[in-house]
Every structure is written in C-alpha cells, then in structure tokens.
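Record now logged for everyone:
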Amino acid sequence: MLFAVNSGSNNVAVFQIQPDGSLVAVNGSPFPSGGSDPVSLGLKDDVLAVVNKDQDPAQNDNLVQPNYTSFRVLPGGVLVPVPQSTVSVAYGSSPSQALMASQGAFLFGADFLGGLLQSFRVDQQGHLNQNLPQALPDSIFAGLTGGHQPLGMRTHPTLPILYVDITPVSEVAVYSYDENGQLSFVRTVSDSGMAPCWAVVNHAATRFYATNTGDNSIAVYDLADPLNPVQIQHFVMASTMARHFQR
C-alpha cells in the first residue's frame, strides 16, 4: 500500500500498489486526517500515525490545534481512527514529522518551532501514550544564535538510537531511548553543510545521511560507532542554475 497526506484538504489517501506499479485507491479513500494540515506519516505494522501541523495559510482561520494521532489500517486499507489517541500540542509549534521507530513500538516527533522532541509508546490497540516532551539541551546552543529547532529525524535500524537534525545551527543530535521510548541526550556532531533538514540511515546501519537545504548538499557520516557519527563527506550538488550557465 501507499499512504499520502493531502495537506490542503486535511485527509490521507490510501492506494493499493498493483503488480505493474500502478495505483488503485482503496474504498473510501481519502480518509480524514484527524486534524488540520497533515504533513507526515509513520507506519508500524497496522498502525498509521499522522502529524497534523495546522500551519496552512489557506486555513489559518480554522482554529484547530496541531496534533499527533493514530489509525488502524484494516486489511483492505481502510483507515479507522484509534479512539482517544489524539495528542494535541501548542498552537504554532509546527510539528513536522511522525517517525515510527525501527526498534520497539515507539513514535517520535519534532515540534520544529516549539523546539521540542516528542516521544510516544504505541500500545497494541494503537494508542499513542505520550512521554514528557523534551527540549533540546541549552548546551547545544552556547555561543550560537540559531533557534532551538529540530526537524528531520531517523532511528538506527537495529539499536535504540535516534538522530535529530538541528536546522539553524547545523548540528546533528544523537539520543538513545529506553524501553518506554524515553529519550536521553548523548551528544551532537557538526554538519559542515548548512541547515540540515532531513535524514536517512542505510539498511546496513553503516551510514547516516543529512540533507542540507542551506547549501544544497548532503553530509555523509560513518556509523562505526553509532553513538558518535563521524562525517566522512560533504557532497555539494550542482544547482539547476549552475547547470544552466555551464551550458
């Protein structure tokens, strides 16, 4: 199946992927997202988590708090809201990602403008059980002028480790998490690019990649020590403007 948020219409589309790669909408699709301005999805078994950002300027008079919420995915792809599993966060906090952990039944979120990391235990019924939100440590920002704004996140494929891009200061924060999904800060490592926003860990758990929107680059880290990533490459991509003038 393929799941896609439709931010402007506050719903989630669900498609069956056919053998030839074509898509067929499941019965009833699209489904209400449970809030305003859905921007991210996380899937774990038959539980789908959705972040409703509530930051669409075309809907700014719709006073619905941003939230994290969850759905059960029925065998045919129909989404059924999990009762009493919507967790609202502060107005204007800009929650931007719903990341299901590779290890354990946990959901992690980044409230970008709120400066908070969210963590939830996901029980067998699909309920989101919120842990205490965690602010980024002040020590990260000593002597720096950037805001406390986490964005892209990714978990280690085989270990309880979370990597978080801190966009304004070009750092990647490393956290461990326990059996309840509670986060513990380990360290930050520098990103030689500008404004890291999104992150990927390869399936072999040997490399971490951070995309840097500020200078159109990708930072590549070695994960020989998963709690202490070491940057081994700063790959700057050619811009479309540069390619135009090269012609």
Remarks:
- The first strand starts at residue 2 and ends at 6.
- The two ends are 41 Å apart (CA to CA).
- Residues 37 and 89 are 14 Å apart (CA to CA).
- The first helix runs from residue 240 to 246.
